[in-house]
Amino acid sequence: MPHHTHDGIDWSARLHAMRRYGSLQAEALTSVARRLVAPLPDSPVVMDVGCGAGSMSVPLVSALREHGGGVLVLVDATPELLDAACAAARIEGDGVVTVKPVLADLTAEDPLSFAGPVELIWGSRVIHHLPDQLRGVKRLVEALAPGGWLALAEGGLETRFLPWDLGVGSPGLQDRMAAARASWFTAMRENMTGSVRLPVGWNVALADAGLGEISAFSFVVDHPAPAKQLVRDWAVDRLTWLSEVTGPHLHPSDRDALRRLLNPSDSEYAGAREDVFLLETDTVHVGRRR
Fold first, then answer.
1. Could you tell me if 31 and 66 are in contact, meaning their C-beta atoms sit under 8 angstroms apart?
2. pLDDT for residue 4
3. Alpha carbon of 77 to those of 106, 108, 145: distances in Å?
4. In this structure, what DSSP letter does residue 14 have?
5. Which of 15, 124, 217, 270 is most buried per CB count within 10 Å?
6. Whole-model pTM above 0.90?
7. Percent of the chain that is helix, strand, coil (3-state, to 5)
């Protein structure tokens, strides 16, 4: 199966950053996984679509193990990420949960039929990277067993991790980066071959894809300052990525501030600041196949 991505992002280069991020989300995602697996039948088949480095794969395996066992199918278009997720999930499964990795592109012809009917499909921040998002949701719905659940983590509140006034550059840098990232994201989607807009909220999209019993809930990841070094290292990862995608949209003074924040030899280096934190709220949209 093809394993390219449509957004032009080199996801394999972000493996270590994704692992760090997953570690900081682990507690919250463990609760989410338990919540989603609890209503499933015995020995269910669960699919993690766009599994990345496995940040949700491991919590899903843990929840399935507590549930008495089952099958977890991992799907991703980037081989390096799929291998990492599979290795971590198999360790957590401890032989009680079967882990099946599949290298697949969700826009490919019939990429999910191998799994048979699936009781739960999880996808986090993956659908918005597909050219036709509604079509992608419909493909996932087709893979569900009757009564099966689709859970998409899409949207929420803007992630916060920097104080308003950093003492370098003008105050409000993070807000300006957020606006610049939105411009980058719009351009990224517009440049995709076959890109189609999704001009509705996710609850409407799930209904349009044929799901019922639609609901949503949000979860919080909170690591307040002063934070452990892992949070500071993640902040450097985040700033590095933001500087890459937002640089052309930022004022030169903001780019100068970013260079200082990313320079380990600078007194303002983000990886050594005691006022760095992580606060984010993600929303999970859930629907059931009739």
1. no
2. 44
3. 8, 10, 23
4. G
5. 270
6. yes
7. 45, 25, 30
